[in-house]
Specification:
The chain is of the alpha/beta class. About 45% of the residues lie in helices and about 15% in strands. The protein has seven helices and five strands.
């Protein structure tokens, strides 16, 4: 199911680069592409602590948090992220993570499974195209949009 821009306008996304990572360009491109597709985006930028993602999600009643990491330390930065969301009352918020998430060359299936095990709903490998992220968001948000229309 592809959502219309009008349907996407009711969906708030938090984006940012987690931890000590300063690689903002890809995250900024993603945020701009998501805005162009009609989503409401709250872009936190680089060097964002986990707590700031969650605080922004609570303050904006966000539907999803999209975490980027490119310096290979995402696994350390994302540890406990789902638990922090649950503690903040965001147990059902959609969590995406993407980028260069580990140090060295590792099988993507193993990396993806580690992030799923940490509570992320989807993990995206380096080089993921923005239309692929939009398609996943549409798929994951369709129940919310259909529920709001009923």
């Amino acid at each position: 199911m592809t959502l219309t821009p009008e349907q996407r306008a009711g969906i708030t996304l938090i984006t940012g680069v987690i931890g000590a990572d300063t690689h903002i360009v890809g995250n900024r491109i993603l945020s701009m592409a998501l805005e162009k597709e009609g989503f409401k985006v709250v872009a936190l930028g680089a060097l964002t602590p986990s707590e700031d993602f969650i605080k922004a999600a609570v303050e904006t009643d966000a539907d999803a948090i999209l975490v980027s990491s490119l310096y290979g330390q995402g696994e350390l930065d994302c540890r406990g992220f789902r638990d922090m969301c649950i503690e903040a009352g965001l147990g059902d918020i959609l969590l995406y993570v993407g980028g260069n998430l580990v140090v060295g060359k590792q099988a993507w299936d193993d990396v993806e499974q580690r992030y799923i095990d940490m509570g992320f709903d989807r993990a995206f490998p380096p080089g993921t195209r923005t239309p692929d992220v939009v398609a996943m968001l549409d798929e994951d948000m369709k129940d919310k949009v259909e529920g709001a229309a009923a």
